[in-house]
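QA checklist item 7 of 12: single-chain prediction sanity check.
[x] sequence parsed
[x] length recorded as 183
[x] structure emitted
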Amino acid sequence: MRTLFIDGWYGPDPGDWQELWLRDLPDAARVEQDNWEMPEREAWVKRLDEAIARCPQPPLLVAHSLGCLTLAHWVTGGARHPVRAAMLAAPADVEENDETALRSFTPIPRSPFPFPAVVVASRTDPWMTPQRARALADAWGACFIDGGDVGHLMASGGYGPWRHGRQILAELAARTAGAACRC
C-alpha cells in the first residue's frame, strides 16, 4: 500500500512526525511542491493529483496543516483518482488567520470526501480551533478525533514521533482494508 504525505506551508520539517513516518513506512512518498514558501492552490492541487495518479493502487493519504486544504481543494475539483482513505492532521484555518501568502486557499471547501477520512485536531492549535475542525470534519464526512493538547504538531513543539497519530493511521489503514471506515 502506498502512503502519500501531503505537507503544509514551508514543507518538510526535519525531525517532525511526517519525516519520521515517511522513513519508517514501506512504500511511502511525499507530494513534492515547487514552492513551499509561497504556496499557490492550483499548483499544489496539481502536484497532489499527479502524485495520486502515479500510484498503482489507491493510496492512503496523510495530510498536515495546509496539506489538508490542498486535499480538500483536490476533492472539490473532482478527485479524479481513487483514494483508499485520508488522515488530516491539524488543518490550517486560512479563513480565520489573515495570512496573505495563504489567501489562494480560501474559502475552505466543504464538499464531502468520496473516501473514508479522519480529522485529528488539537485543543491548542493556533491555526484552528477544535470547534472549526469538527465543523470541517462534519462537512467532509470525516470522523473527528480530539488529538489533545498538541499545538500544531510541529517538531519545534515536540512532535517528532507522535505515537498517538501513528496509532490513528494504523487503525484507519486496518479499517479500510477492503471495508468501509466506521467511526
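[x] summary fact logged: Residues 41-53 form the longest helix (13 residues).
[ ] second reviewer sign-off
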